[in-house]
Specification:
The chain is mainly beta and 133 residues long. The chain has 2 domains: 76 residues, no CATH class; 40 residues, no CATH class. It has 2 helices and 9 strands; from the N terminus they run ββββββαββαβ.
Length: 133
């Protein structure tokens, strides 16, 4: 975790699903773990969430040893405050520029508000059960 100031927590899970170790911030209860499909080498990004008003993102990736057998899975929590600050800074966008960042799956949907008409955008996000970060 010392290689990235944004990585603030890692949970290592064995191949049978047992939590082996937690370093830093643990995954909060109620947050879906982004576990990749079996035999996948892809990183799965979970839905953003907040702890004490600070935005976080969770990601999961399988760990492989020398062979094809999966040794376990790492679940990493990233502090998204820096990204959130970039998206909220509209100084270089002029009058009509916009940054729209969002993600959605059946169970988790998220969005960041637009520069223009924030109230309407937030209402639309909440109406569609999106988490506004």
């Amino acid at each position: 975790m010392s290689a990235s100031k944004e990585a603030v927590g890692i949970t290592r899970i064995s191949s049978d699903g047992t939590t082996l170790v937690v370093v830093g911030i643990p995954v909060p209860e109620g947050i879906s773990l982004p576990i990749p499909p079996d035999k996948s080498r892809a990183v799965v990004i979970g839905a953003p969430f907040r702890i004490g008003g600070v935005p976080f993102l969770v990601a999961g990736v399988h760990i492989y040893g020398e062979g094809p057998k999966r040794a376990g899975t790492d679940i990493v929590i990233f502090d998204m405050d820096h990204v959130h600050g970039i998206v909220k800074d509209h100084s270089g966008l002029g009058k009509t520029g916009e940054i729209i960042l969002g993600a959605g799956r059946k169970e988790d949907k998220t969005c960041l508000p637009q520069k223009q008409d924030r109230a309407r955008f937030r209402h639309s996000c909440r109406k569609n059960r999106l988490l506004v970060i």
